[in-house]
Amino acid sequence: MSKRPIPRSGEMLPVIGVGTWQTFDVGPNAPERAELKEVLRLLAEAGGSVVDSSPMYGEAERTVGDLTTELGLRKKLFFATKVWTTGREAGIRQMEESRRLMRAETIDLMQVHNLVDLGTHLKTLREWKSTGKIRYLGITHYTAGAHAELERLVKTREYDFVQINYSLAEREADERLLGACQESGTAVIINRPFAHAGLFGQVRGKPLPPWAADFDCTSWAQYFLKWVLGHPAVTCVIPGMRRVAHLKDNVQAGMGRLPDAATRRRMVEYLDRL
Questions:
Q1: What is the pLDDT of residues 81-131, one digit of tens each?
Q2: DSSP per-residue string spanning 16-41
Q3: Is the C-alpha dihedral spanning 241, 86, 142, 129 positive or negative?
Q4: Residue 111 and residue 164: Cα distance in Å, rounded?
Q5: 240: which strand partners?
Q6: pTM of this prediction?
Q7: What's residue 148's pLDDT?
Q8: 248 C-beta neighbours (distance < 10 Å), count
Q9: Which residues contact 54 (CB under 8 A, 6 or more apart)?
Q10: Alpha-carbon distance 177 to 155, whole Å?
Q11: pLDDT at 209
């Protein structure tokens, strides 16, 4: 799988990861855990590493911690999670619980979820980064309405990562935010690359254009992901996955050629005509 550098450190990060919202929110005896375990195993086998979660996602952090421990994969994976509460002490308690649930002494990336009580948590995250409890700190949101505030924040260069929504159905980050991330040296993780699966509804029953083969694309999922990865500001994209078949398809988007700027415009035009 292709890798891209985290601008602040130069560490190389694989371009396809796994989001755990809804998909990993299962109990300890749920039958779905067997397939989720295989998803994580195959992600690592394909060269991927990023697994993104949050206390907001129910049992997802615990599921990730349990399954990666059973697989012995912790050292191969890049754990990202979030703080999603108000108040310094509540934030500390929640982040300590995330470390416990994910069975991770160090969290690779801790993000302030949807900018909730950002000023308070930023102070704690700086402290935790200096003591090695986290390696990177970041901010997240999932709607275009937050992009102006995110742009202002990334320009301060306080944050190693920003996680945002961006897809062929939600292109607003193209206007200013992704450019600001490039200029400020902020790594970018993309959520909602399929617009909550809405893009698949748009193309159901429609053929891929034959020229998709020019950038090693063999499915609509790869078409959507490769379009996102074609933007040079993007570091990693994290589609939610619970099925092995989806994992195998999606990781292919991180391999082979990517569309250039002209081809990305052609991809937009083709989709808009469907």
A1: 999 999 999 999 999 999 999 999 999 999 999 999 999 999 999 999 999
A2: B-EE-TTTT---TT-TTHHHHHHHHH
A3: negative
A4: 12
A5: 19
A6: 0.97
A7: 97
A8: 13
A9: 20, 21, 60, 61, 81, 82, 84, 113
A10: 10
A11: 97
